[in-house]
Amino acid sequence: EIVLTQSPGTLSLSPGERITLSCRASQTVSSNYLAWYQQKPGQAPRLLIYGASSRATGIPDRFGGSGSATDFTLTISRLEPEDFAVYYCQQYVTSPITFGQGTRLEIK
Amino acid sequence: EVQLVESGGGLVQPGGSLRLSCAASGFSFSDHYMEWVRQAPGKGLQWVGRIRNKADNYITEYAASVKGRFTISRDDSQNSLHLQMSSLKIEDTAVYYCIRNDWGILDYWGQGTLVTVSS
Fold this sequence. Notes:
The structure holds two protein chains of two kinds. By secondary structure, chain A is mainly beta. Helix content of chain A is 0%, strand content 49%.
């Protein structure tokens, strides 16, 4: 199975800052079948990015995804208060579907 | 509007059984693969399994940790998805999410239902 490793584990930041989250795969994620999700406390995950770089419906353009093969990133160009949450990457190129362990964004 | 509403969670003893259901609306349910993902308290996301659509013969796939104990089924006439769980273990305690699969992308998630396995 493909293991996804996210870094860092936790980030403490202020609104307005720009951030980049990393997701590294143990094998090539072909066709860039890599997605990113946001999860707030008590809520289900919400799809942000699919195909490594395509924004899901209704996702603001401050969220951007990039990368290929084994290295992927999620960038938030300017943090808004509602962006403080946990972010997960996920590959869907092969079964079993696997998720990274998550990166938690905290307000500094 | 796509909606997925899970039900059936609760408290069950180790070794027991439970059946979760997911009511789908707002899309052509029969066309889509459907997935279950779970999240243990305070932990990350873990894929449980998938059922394909009729065109792909309703083939099911499972995570190794639940294979042989969990069974996924669907009723396209009722727009419903089910997860039959048996021989439950304490480590199966989690919120279980029903998810629409759109060409591989897990695009819509239900709100989840909590399963607690405890004596």
